[in-house]
# Entry
Amino acid sequence: MSTRRHFAIFTTASLPWMTGTAINPLFRAAYLAKDGDKDVTLVIPWLCLRDQELVYPNKIVFDSPLEHEGYVRHWIEERIDFRPSFSIKFYPGKFSTEMRSILPVGDITECIPEEVADIAVLEEPEHLNWYHHGRRWKNKFRRVIGIVHTNYLAYVRREKNGQVIACFLKYANTWVTRIYCHKIIRLSGATQDLARSVVCNVHGVNPKFLEVGKLKLRQMQSGEVAFTKGAYYIGKMVWSKGYRELLDLLSKYQSKLTGLEVDLYGTGEDSDEICKSAERLSLAVNVHPGRDHADPLFHEYKVFINPSTTDVVCTTTAEALAMGKIVICANHPSNEFFKQFPNCRMYNNDEEFVQLTLNALSEHPAPLTDMQRYELSWEAATERFIKAADIDLHVPESRIHQTSRVSVPTFLRTRKLKQNLEDASVYLHQAISGLEVIRRAFGAVPKTQQPDEQLCKDLGLAPPAKRKKLKFKLMT
# Structure
């Protein structure tokens, strides 16, 4: 075993899908490896060509994992000022059209060799483990850290029979995170409470946004007009991403907001309906296709309006603050981290939303201090992550999971009992997740206990038949 700690970061999405679980783990890998004192591997899903065509935008597809890796590396290298030194590996995945998510196929712990299995970081641990049927994470890795990105309960409650589904999902999330993770980091209090969890925002912003903020500050200090446009919102164009709340507010207070012009940027399943709703307003609400928030087009806007309460920590809110803009958002647990920034204006009711919006359009943003700018950076986010995860960067002498020597027999018996109960819980989950009929009943993609022939071919894995024989030998 190396004298350096090894971090294996498993996540549920990859570029070019511009989603939080594709972007944030990529930056985390780059900044964990930045100082060169840690070995870091980013483990991302590989999709067959058919699934790539469903998921990735602008008809971007890859013929091989090597080509996909090149795309990911090029993207991150364009956005940071150092050369990232982490490795990239792929696990087999399938896209679920019903869930609009990528789900792991087979035992993805196999991606990391036994001799370097040290610290596993599970980005969306519940998502990665709903259907996990393979090696127990805690047995393979010294420490397993889960980072909860998504408020799944808020999303499912909006569906048919949402309350019933949310009740079951809450239990499932609690179950799999407890048995497979040593520690859980919840990005904000907007997520469900979980065992052994702490609330801490361990995300930063692309440094390019901080550079924009510095430029705007220099313009204001020199007397130039830093912002030439008013208000905007950017986000995936689905009702649950805050569009319903925003259009309802604008519709209700059209008379008080006379003269307000808002530009909406996004692409999604509800684009047509959102366009029609915007057209019915007397206010000038312009709907545009989605764009990268780093596009120079957005540099000129002064006010970012984000009424969404389904995000855990909204990346675009952090980016807008980094660019020196005023942000109007709801006083909600998902926005707690942003309260420290004077340009973040939070409303508690509709009337406050109207007043804060009008004030923001007539005021100048407050300049960010060096400390506030640092708090938004990935350097600070990485420090918060190490602290929140309780990771000792010193390498233990032995690969064996060690327990503390405690002289109190009662405590030892209690600990042993808890371990036995957890072992039984793991066994139950493994038994259930190994039954195809149950997996499919709870939303798993059919036949995903093992990668199919095409995924094995793409990733250079043993053919399915040989993999089944090997698994049988290991179990017997």
Observations:
- The longest strand covers residues 87-96.
